[in-house]
Write a structure and sequence with these properties.
The chain has 371 residues and is an alpha/beta fold. It is 30% helix and 25% strand.
Length: 371
């Protein structure tokens, strides 16, 4: 039996269940595993599982499912560890429905293993029931939930219209991230986002952050990736694997946390704009021993529990609201509007140029050096 495994998110990896399940499925046939999503990459690296779980491409979960579909595997497993049984089951529903929109036939079984090891964990056979599902249910002590139960219990209320989206499993005080941009904070355990003309215009159960909405811009609320709370919950010791230093002093520019930070792993230095972008990207780039020069304004939403930064990184904190303005000028004057430059030979030279740009804007700033 050829088995495809799509691993989503850091939690199922940090818990140890991704490897346990991959090994268990190996008793049934030949297993190949790949990541679906972005945030699980650092977890794969920290666990040393790059040779077990393919992280070579940035793929949304439905695209990872489609790759196995096109490889003609016999069954595909989706491994996830949601914040709650509700969020996990709703996640699976949306992934499966995005997947079937991308294929011409639906003859390969899609089986989700959700929150393994938890009392509310489950197995969901999204299209075809197989004997292996019942065997795994007994071995893992997980209940089997039907797609109809997921729809009836959690989805049916979402049919109010494509411009309204209910977000399940939230708690008060959590950040709301839409396509990796923080757009507000919850103040209730019930959250609904409302969009008009592809822009989020209102919220129930939270408070919107105008600056975040401005960064987000247009969005398809139906297909948007929405997360609340921390992106990664486990306390981890990051695994540093270094990077290719043969490209000279390559400096790259990053102004959006949703970009694929991993494509910058051959850089000598990365300039990041925004508090959350700096926090997320510096934490990832720590694994590759790449310092950052961050442009922040103190408007931190804390989307990870703790962020690591490479020694010699530099964080500029400018006046509130000036981080984007400084970032635009840096991109124009240092990168010619692009994203890569070889015009500088050291981090000190980059620091000096940024100080010059900030002074031209005439805003106050302070510098934090990472020792």
């Amino acid at each position: 039996m050829k088995i495809g495994v799509v691993v989503h998110g850091p939690n199922v990896i940090d818990s140890g269940y991704a490897l346990k399940l991959i090994n268990l499925l190996g008793e049934y046939g030949e297993v190949k595993a790949r990541l679906g999503g972005t945030m699980g990459r650092t977890a794969v690296i920290d666990a040393g599982l790059e040779n077990v779980i393919d992280i070579s491409r940035k793929l949304v979960p439905s695209d990872s499912l489609k790759i196995f579909h096109d490889d003609y595997v016999d069954v595909i497993f989706l491994l996830n560890y949601g914040k709650s049984d509700v969020t996990g089951q709703v996640f699976g529903y949306k992934v499966y429905n995005h997947y079937i929109e991308k294929i011409s036939d639906n003859n390969i079984a899609i089986i989700q293993i959700e929150r393994p090891g938890e009392d509310d964990g489950s197995i969901i056979c999204w299209n075809h029931e197989l004997d292996i599902s019942y065997e795994l249910s007994e071995k893992l002590d997980l209940a089997i939930i039907t797609p109809q139960e997921v729809y009836d219990n959690h989805i049916r209320q979402d049919d109010a219209g494509v411009n309204q989206r209910i977000v399940h499993g939230v708690s008060p005080g959590e950040n709301i991230m839409v396509n990796s941009v923080v757009i507000g904070k919850t103040n209730s355990d019930k959250l609904t986002l409302i969009a008009k003309d592809n822009h989020i215009v209102d919220i129930r159960g939270g408070e919107l952050k105008p600056h975040g909405l401005e960064k987000l811009g247009e969005v398809d609320l139906e297909s948007a990736i929405i997360k609340t709370g921390l992106l990664r919950h486990a306390k981890v010791t990051p695994r540093v694997i270094g990077h290719d230093k043969s490209n000279g002093f390559k400096v790259t520019f990053l102004d959006h946390a949703g970009e694929d930070v991993y494509k910058f792993r051959d850089s000598a230095l990365v300039i990041t704009v925004g508090d959350d972008t700096t926090l997320i990207s510096s934490d990832i780039l720590y694994r590759f021993d790449i310092p950052v020069v961050g442009i922040t304004d103190g408007d931190l939403d804390k989307v990870v529990e703790s962020g690591f930064k490479v020694k010699n990184s530099i964080i500029f904190e400018v006046e509130s609201g000036f981080d984007d303005i400084c970032g635009q000028d840096i991109r124009t004057k240092m990168f010619g509007g692009g994203q890569v430059t070889y015009d500088y030979s050291s981090i000190d030279e980059v620091e000096g140029k940024i100080i010059e740009i900030i002074k031209d804007i005439n805003c106050k700033y302070k510098i934090n050096y990472i020792d």
